[in-house]
Design brief:
binds magnesium ion, Pyrv_kinase-like_dom_sf, TIM Barrel, about 270 residues, 11 helices, binds 5,10-methenyl-6,7,8-trihydrofolic acid, globular, alpha/beta, about 15% strand, binds 3-methyl-2-oxobutanoic acid, eight-stranded parallel beta barrel
């Protein structure tokens, strides 16, 4: 039996320069497969609103949905660290944030993930005091798609320094992890080198400390036929789902994923 993955494990991997692998999963069976094929972090993502529920954004997902899927993931998990998304408006006030986090942690999450910037610094500190480590998701935060006016690359031009400063401030406030989505590779590298905590990227280039993809995307399954640039179909050259997930882990570990074709420039 391998020991369970904890934040200590992830910090050690970063220090040793070994890439961290993260993959979304929403049920017991896929969590069993992912965790037993070397995926260190399972993300119960609110992307389930799109890939499981068929919505055109993540906004309709409820805290009850997230708790339900987190509980299922926990039952299949073989030692991975479970990170669960706080869905849209589940952290609008501090009281609500506590109640939402309690539901996710009691369902089986080890870490909660919140979308946002420095305005979360106080929340991060208060959650730590209450025994809840947090991962802060910055860059393209899909719950703000209506503010952005589409799923667009973030952190270009003048926005780069602001994003860098936000990441440093959240790390100093005590965030356990950062997740950067759709940002230029150079910026993600610079942030990963500047903070001590693990930085996971999706569409953030090879310089992040780890990578994440949506399970359905890397299995080549799409409802719309339009996949983001950062996605690679790992089923292409593999005979089974298990071997596709193993190939993803290997490609992240050996640095062959993400390749240049999956990156965004400044
Ligand atoms: N299946 C799935 N995969 C995901 O990665 C994902 C979800 N769902 N749902 C929640 C968010 C939404 N995400 C998205 C969706 C679209 C793009 C996209 O089309 N990006 C453009 C970049 C446009 C630009 O250049 O500014 C691309 O070409 O990839 C990116 C992230 C990531 N997340
Ligand atoms: C795309 C990843 C990072 C996510 O937040 C999700 O799956 O919900
Ligand atoms: Mg999400």
């Amino acid at each position: 039996m391998k020991p369970n993955i904890t934040l200590t494990t992830l910090n050690k991997l970063k220090q040793q320069g070994e890439k961290i692998t993260m993959l979304t999963s929403y049920d017991a069976t896929f969590s069993h497969v992912a965790s037993s094929h070397g995926v260190e972090v399972i993300l119960v993502g609110d992307s389930l609103g799109m890939v499981l529920q068929g919505h055109d954004s993540t906004l309709p997902v409820s805290i009850a949905d997230m708790a339900y899927h987190t509980a299922a993931v926990k039952r299949g998990n073989q030692g991975a660290l479970i990170v669960s998304d706080l869905p849209f408006m589940a952290a609008a006030t501090l009281e609500q944030t506590y109640a939402s986090c309690a539901q996710l942690m009691q369902a089986g999450a080890h870490v909660v993930k919140l979308e946002g910037g420095t305005w979360l610094a106080d929340t991060v500190q208060r959650l730590n005091e209450r025994g809840i480590p947090s991962c802060i998701h910055l860059g393209l935060t899909p719950q703000s798609v209506n503010v952005f006016g589409g799923y667009k690359v973030q952190g270009r031009g003048d926005a780069a320094q602001k994003l860098f400063d936000d990441c440093c401030e959240l790390a100093a406030a005590g965030a356990a992890m950062l997740l950067l989505e759709c940002v230029p590779s150079e910026l993600a590298s610079r942030i990963s080198q500047a903070v001590e905590i693990p930085v996971i990227g999706i569409g953030a280039g090879p310089g992040a400390d780890g990578q994440v993809l949506v399970l359905h995307d890397m299995l080549g399954l799409s409802l719309t036929g339009r996949v983001p640039k950062f996605v690679k179909n790992f089923m292409q050259d593999q005979p089974s789902i298990s071997s596709a997930i193993a190939a993803y882990v290997k490609a992240v570990k050996d640095g062959s994923f993400p390749a240049q074709e999956h990156e965004f420039s400044a």
